[in-house]
Amino acid sequence: MRTVSSVNVNGVRAAAAKGLLRWLTGTSADIVCLQETRAQLDELPPAMLAGWHLAYAPCESVRGRNGVGVLTREQPEAVRVGIGEPEFDGSGRYLEVDLPGLTIASLYLPNGTVGTPRQAEKNRFLALFAPYLAERREKAAAEDREMLVCGDWNIAPAEADIRNWRGNVKNSGFLPHEREWMAALFASGWVDVVRALHPGVDGPYSWWSYRGRAFDRDTGWRIDHHVATPELAARAVSAAVERAPSHGERWSDHAPVTIVYAS
To answer: In what side-by-side order are the strands of the sheet with 31-35?
Structure first.
């Protein structure tokens, strides 16, 4: 068995002070993918690395933004940063780690805002990322590895993945072309593992705004995904969103998405 967790920590130093360290100490995960760490390597809390190997990709252009990492119990065989595109490779958006039989990636896909340069950036990333994933999947298969891309994809794929979908059809994260992009990805053979294990239900949501009572009312979005090659997805035993017991006990606006994969 391999247990894999993925979470956008919304600032690793703040999250560590609020409960991330306790969660890391108690988790049974073998692999933890982190997103939006917003810290350089030397700014990471040393306590969070106890018992883990860390592969890390901070944002090199702007301090305090983005940042992805992968914590593993076993030593990685190889680490790769970026998707081979200069615009994004130093931006702390994507990191891959090779383990025996598995390539696992941590992704922080750009979060757009309609009508702004941020949405244009997100659209450029999507256009580049789909062919990259196709290429990496072929390479992983040639090396007899499965592949798993975990992270904050910043897209809710379908109506069941966002509580107030009618009010968000013109907002980034639920735009028609973004959902079509995800649908094409799944049609090409990639599998949305949480949805495969939780068909026909709303959610389970993984992000809730800090505004109002979104968390208390479970007015959330499912934007944190495990996207796997079919053979690996078929080995998924269970999937759960580790939702905090209360608003006050949250250490991020996201919750860890944890899946157990059979060996």
So the answer is: 53-57, 68-72, 31-35, 2-8, 257-261, 236-241
Q: Which of 97, 90, 85 is nearest to 67 (CA)?
A: 90
Selection from 227, 206, 208 nearest residue 219 by Cα: 208
H-helix or E-strand spanning residue 182: helix 176-187
pLDDT level of residue 211 (50, 70, 90 thresholds): confident
Q: Which 3 state secondary structure label does DSSP give 178? A: helix
Helix axes 176-187, 117-142, angle to 10 degrees: 0
Which homologous superfamily is 2-261 in? Endonuclease/exonuclease/phosphatase (3.60.10.10)
End-to-end alpha-carbon separation of the chain, Å?
A: 5
The tens digit of pLDDT for each residue in 57-80 reads: 999 988 889 999 999 999 999 999
Query: To 10 degrees, the CA torsion angle through 191, 262, 161, 156?
Result: -50
The predicted structure's pLDDT at residue 254? 98
Condensed to tens digits (0 to 9), the pLDDT of residues 164-209 reads: 999 999 999 999 999 999 999 999 999 999 999 999 999 999 999 9
Q: Tell me what percent of the residues of the chain surpass a pLDDT of 70.
A: 100
Q: DSSP letter string over 194-240?
A: HHHHSTTSS----B--SSTTTTTTT--B--EEEEE-HHHHTTEEEEE
CA distances from 237 to 2, 149, 165, 177 (A): 10, 17, 29, 32
> Hey, what are 148's tokens?
């798993």
**Percent of the chain residues topping a pLDDT of 90:** 94
